[in-house]
Amino acid sequence: MIKIRYVEASDKEFWYSLDKHLPETEFQNKVYTKRGYVLSLNNKPVGLLRYNLFWDSVPFCTMIFIDCQYQGKGYGKQLIQYWENDMKRRGYEMLLTSTQVDEKAQHFYRKLGYKDCGGFVIDIPQYAQPMEMFFIKSI
């Protein structure tokens, strides 16, 4: 049985088992603002999604991650669709997300109806990474 809900403070250990990038103060903020979700399978957490508001007005998915042994089974799609429905229910009409050009997630987003809408390259040595691609979707 699949259940998706807002992240709670008690999810901290699970959250950090998958998300190594989020500062602790931001985890607390995600709990407080309900800008994170946990996907559980038979009461076991296996995935997460977090987002911010780009321009303080457009929901922007900053991370979706499904535990490796559960990938490729449709859970990521269900988590994105849950987020989309929640954002639509809250009155948003457009969504953004991104991924690096060397990651397979770009194909995942396109299958879900997201369109390429630009990108940027960070060439500051200590932050350098492959180009970040952005995707947009009307909901």
Summarize the structure.
This protein is α+β, with helices and mostly antiparallel strands.
Strand content: 35-45%
Indicate the mean pLDDT. Answer: 97
Q: The biggest beta sheet, please?
A: 7 strands, mixed
The shape, in one word, is globular
Helix content: 25-40%
- Give the SSE order as H and E letters: EHHEEEHEHEE
Distance between the termini: 27 Å
> What class, by secondary structure content?
alpha+beta
Task: Please compute the radius of gyration using only Cα atoms.
Answer: 15 Å
Q: State the strand order across the main sheet.
A: 1-2-3-4-5-7-6
Give the total of beta strands. Answer: 7
How many separate helices?
4
Question: How does this model look, in words?
Answer:
- The structure is a single chain.
- The chain is α+β, with helices and mostly antiparallel strands.
- Helices cover 28% and strands 37% of the residues.
- It has a seven-stranded mixed sheet with strand order 1-2-3-4-5-7-6, sandwiched between helices.
- The chain is globular.
In terms of topology, how is this protein built?
Blueprint: E1 2-6, H1 12-18, H2 24-33, E2 36-41, E3 44-54, E4 58-66, H3 75-89, E5 94-100, H4 105-111, E6 115-120, E7 132-138
Parallel strand pairs: 4-5
Antiparallel strand pairs: 1-2, 2-3, 3-4, 5-7, 6-7
Kindly list the characteristics that best describe this protein.
139 residues, single chain, globular, alpha+beta, 37% strand, seven-stranded mixed beta sheet
